[in-house]
Amino acid sequence: MTTGQKTITVFVTLISALLVAIIGLSQDWALWVWPVAGGLLLVLPFLLVGAGRHRTDLFPPGSLPDPDLPIPPVERREVRVTGVALPSKAEDYDFLFSATVRWCPSEPSAESPAVHASGLAVEAILDRARAITTDRKPSRCALVRHELGGLLATMEPDASGLVRSMALDVSLTLSDEDQERLDKLAAVRKDEAVWAHERRYEQSRRTYLGEDVLRDTGSAVVWWLNKNDDSVAKTVEDIGLLAQLTSASKNQHVAEPFRHLVPEAPGDREPGAAFGVPESFSSGDAGERDAPDLFARFLHAAGLQPEDDVYVFLTEQTATTLKDFDIDLSSALRERFDPLASSVPPESDTDDGAGPESPDAEWQRT
What we know:
alpha+beta; 4 domains; Tetrahydropterin Synthase, Chain A; 13 helices
């Protein structure tokens, strides 16, 4: 008894029981009729099974023109490719492509030429993937992998039109060496960008300070007044410092209106400036001309007159002292305060000491 016959037997038995129940209820059968009807229903399945056993096959296996053939093995229509190098937008940086290629014939026909369908499918998938990776940066490897997964997930025919293929489980990576190089280059670019930004910031600050704040002393004073919350007293105290800063930023001397506010360093003073000596008094002819005048002013300030002994003594001692340091200044003093002494010829170098009287002797005699 086949499975179909068993199904039909159960179905007929249930339908018969349902019909007996409907008829019995509608005709109001006596109680003794219900057991009889139930017994008949129990016998019905056995009758159907017996009838099925004696049924003859209208088409016995030997009467068919073609005997049953074995089911041919299913052709495996997918292949795995791994580690295929695909070019990227950056030269010498290749993607490593891996995927499962699934394919099927475009138009199955007995007249189709004998081809290696899996090879055509793999070639078609690689061509589709290469067209995408060529325009992609290697630093975006993860993003390109998902892009390939979506674009290669559709069955499309190859160039010959013989097979249709798609790719599953797409993987796209870079070699460890290339990934390390890209990471280093990215870090250098980021550092360079930060350095360039800091450099532009410093240049902007220098331009602001040099061309705006320190353009002149007045601009610096206004800027400093604003920095100190309009504190006038402090700003006035710092004017000299601001004048120095402004002049130093332009490699110039302090402007004349602010020079009196700038304390001079000892090394910046002219020789003798601490004693009131004019700037024109220096080595050379100017010093020779000014020295007698300064000495005369000194004697006059001390209240000495030419006829005083102290006047003559100081003049002689000063001229004698300067003779050892600057003979020209000594001579200038002698000419100014004793013209006669300068006209006396110098003493001779004879061993007996004879000869004209020296200027020193003249001063001592006086």
